[in-house]
């Protein structure tokens, strides 16, 4: 057997050996007592400090860091907490469907389709900028109490190597939040609101879920112009940092102008669908005062489109006040309507918190009738003319309505479109399938019908003069003039 304390042993006689064993026992006992006393002294004086050092040491040896994102904070939670959790859930849904062995379908607030996520206790990995991170869905210890009962918060734990801390905590977490919110937004059920007034004030009414099928892909318009608008909208919706940097509210104004039936309302629906923004349709004539207008506009949340259609005639925006002094006590009662300056002030005062943008879209058939102050750049940043149907727009409509991309009659139609003034609505109405005939004859029936409509329009244009048609286009025909 190896001597546990070799330096104390003396290789001699058995008597000596007995003596030395006794001494050894005493020495061990004394050492133990001293050690215990020392230990007690140390812990009573430096216990907390030692524990902290120990923890530091252990954690410095652990090459991983973990961050938890809980569903609700322990103090009852708040929307911010839930938002982060929901954004992670939505972000991970695309990763986990390919990786996780067990999945569950969750419904997430405001999203109209179930989101696939990892099951409790499961995990998935993700890669960003060449760095691998691991996500894991866990359940916290019971947070309930006698009043609220048992409650176990779920959390997503994000684990990564310590050396990547800066990148993960900064860039990666931001990327997850933004992507998650963007995915959620694209699945959001859009809503349509309209305003009304009562003696209690002006307010927004939920009208219905906004399910308009219009998309930019099906909008009949020149490709280049369409791409420019899409690009502008995307830049706007991703412009948080830009607007913050230049110190301007995150909002943008669009003016859509052109003859009736050129697709202004359709374009607004396509914009809402592209950005997943709710639509707030403002009926100016139902607003009784500038103050009421201000209250309404201030209640429009971020990521929404404020629409004022036919701005030229939706309100007699004047700077006048109607006076009514018929009251018995002869006091002057002022009936205040929305004035132009009131509207301008509201538009200018409309600001957006930095967590989402606001789009304003005004439409008109008669752009020349608008006050230049209303449409000046800065208020209406982008002016979009909606025009009569050109050949490119026609091909889009033929594709949508007849499912044909080429036809020998296209050449004739192109020629006629150059000399006519028909709106995309006119063309759409002519091409609309009735009784499946387009299927039977490859669209020829409808194309011929369109040719006849175009020929008539060209003839009419020649006989009544282009000027009259132009007037009609701009909505300038006087009562009694040919329509
Ligand atoms: N550019 C277009 N692309 C696709 N469809 C269109 C287009 N323009 C018009 N249409 C069709 O015509 C119908 C009427 O169009 P829309 O209401 O968008 O026109 P508008 O310019 O807003 O008219 P108004 O000024 O009378 O309100 C739409 O439902 C759509 O089917």
From TrEMBL:
GO terms for biological process: response to stress. PROSITE patterns: AAA (PS00674). Its cofactor is Mg(2+). It catalyses: ATP + H2O = ADP + phosphate + H(+). Keywords: ATP-binding, Hydrolase, Magnesium, Nucleotide-binding. Residues 250-390 form the AAA+ ATPase domain. CDD domains: RecA-like_BCS1. One of its GO terms (molecular function) is ATP binding. Coiled coil: none annotated. PANTHER family: BCS1 AAA-TYPE ATPASE. Belongs to the AAA ATPase family. BCS1 subfamily. This is AAA+ ATPase domain-containing protein.
């Amino acid at each position: 057997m190896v001597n546990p304390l070799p330096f104390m042993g003396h290789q001699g006689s058995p008597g000596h050996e007995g003596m030395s064993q006794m001494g050894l026992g005493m020495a061990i006992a004394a050492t133990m007592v001293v050690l215990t006393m020392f230990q007690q002294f140390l812990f009573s004086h430096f216990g907390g400090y030692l524990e902290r050092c120990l923890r530091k040491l252990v954690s410095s040896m652990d090459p991983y860091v973990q961050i938890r994102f809980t569903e609700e904070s322990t103090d009852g939670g708040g929307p911010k907490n839930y938002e982060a959790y929901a954004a992670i859930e939505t972000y991970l849904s695309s990763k986990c469907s390919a990786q996780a062995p067990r999945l569950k379908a969750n419904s997430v607030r405001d999203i109209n389709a179930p989101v696939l996520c990892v099951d409790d206790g499961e995990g998935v990995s993700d890669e960003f900028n060449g760095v691998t991170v691991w996500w894991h869905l866990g359940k916290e210890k019971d947070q309930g109490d006698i009043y609220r009962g048992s409650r176990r918060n779920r959390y997503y734990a994000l684990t990564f190597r310590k050396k990547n801390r800066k990148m993960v905590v900064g860039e990666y977490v931001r990327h997850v939040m933004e992507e998650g919110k963007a995915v959620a937004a694209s699945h959001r059920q859009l809503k349509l609101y309209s305003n009304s007034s009562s003696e209690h004030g002006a307010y927004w009414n939920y009208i219905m879920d906004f399910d308009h099928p219009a998309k930019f892909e099906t909008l009949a318009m020149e490709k280049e112009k369409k791409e420019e608008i899409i690009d502008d909208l995307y830049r706007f919706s991703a412009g948080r940092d830009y607007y913050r940097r230049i110190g301007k509210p995150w909002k943008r104004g669009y003016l859509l102008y052109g003859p009736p039936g050129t697709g202004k309302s359709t374009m607004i629906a396509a914009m809402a669908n592209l950005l997943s923004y709710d639509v707030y349709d403002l009926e100016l004539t139902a607003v009784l005062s500038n103050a009421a207008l201000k209250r309404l506009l201030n209640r429009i949340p971020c990521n929404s489109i404020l629409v004022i259609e036919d701005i030229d005639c939706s309100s007699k925006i004047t700077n006048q006040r109607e006076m009514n002094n018929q009251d018995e006590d002869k006091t002057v009662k002022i009936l205040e309507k929305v004035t132009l300056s009131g509207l301008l002030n509201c538009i200018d005062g409309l600001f957006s918190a930095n967590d989402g943008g606001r789009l304003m879209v005004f439409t008109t058939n008669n752009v020349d009738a608008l006050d230049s102050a209303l449409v000046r750049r800065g208020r209406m940043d982008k002016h979009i003319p909606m025009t009569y149907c050109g050949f490119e727009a026609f091909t889009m409509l033929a594709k949508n309505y007849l499912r044909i991309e080429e036809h020998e009659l296209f050449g004739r139609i192109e020629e006629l479109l150059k000399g006519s003034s028909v709106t995309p609505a006119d063309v759409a109405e002519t091409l609309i399938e009735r009784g499946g005939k387009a299927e039977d004859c490859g669209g020829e029936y409808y194309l011929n019908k369109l040719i006849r409509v175009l020929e008539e329009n060209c003839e009419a244009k020649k006989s009544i003069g282009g000027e009259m048609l132009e007037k009609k286009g701009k909505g300038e025909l006087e009562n009694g003039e040919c329509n």
